[in-house]
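Marked as duplicate of an earlier ticket. Keeping the data here for the record.
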Amino acid sequence: MDTLLQESQSPQGLSPLPLAFVGDGVYELMVREYLVSQGNCPVKKLHSRKVELVRCQAQAQALSQVLWPLLTEEERAVAQRGRNAHVGHVPKNAQVADYHGGTALEALFGWLYLKGELARLRELFTKVMEAQNE
């Protein structure tokens, strides 16, 4: 897949929060696709399960416990930039460390998506879902 960014603008040049903005949408869409692929169930149940999987605590745990050992040096650097990004606020129901960990995962997913590395994105997402099912 070709990137939607102009040639003069690479994902490398984007700051971590815009990467996380894109990655948030990418990750949520992948979760929704995964849940629907598991078979029919009521939308209310789909929504509840989606919220479980996309909340920052689950994302932070997925990054640190599942993905971190699998990442390349470059991918780790992107995730680290996302983790260290100065976010304007942290939701009241979230721990600061979890929120930063979720931002790191989203920045990584946004970066991979904008680079057009969909196979790598799916590979990492599959690892996260496999770990969820254990």
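See parent ticket for discussion. The chain has a mean pLDDT of 90.
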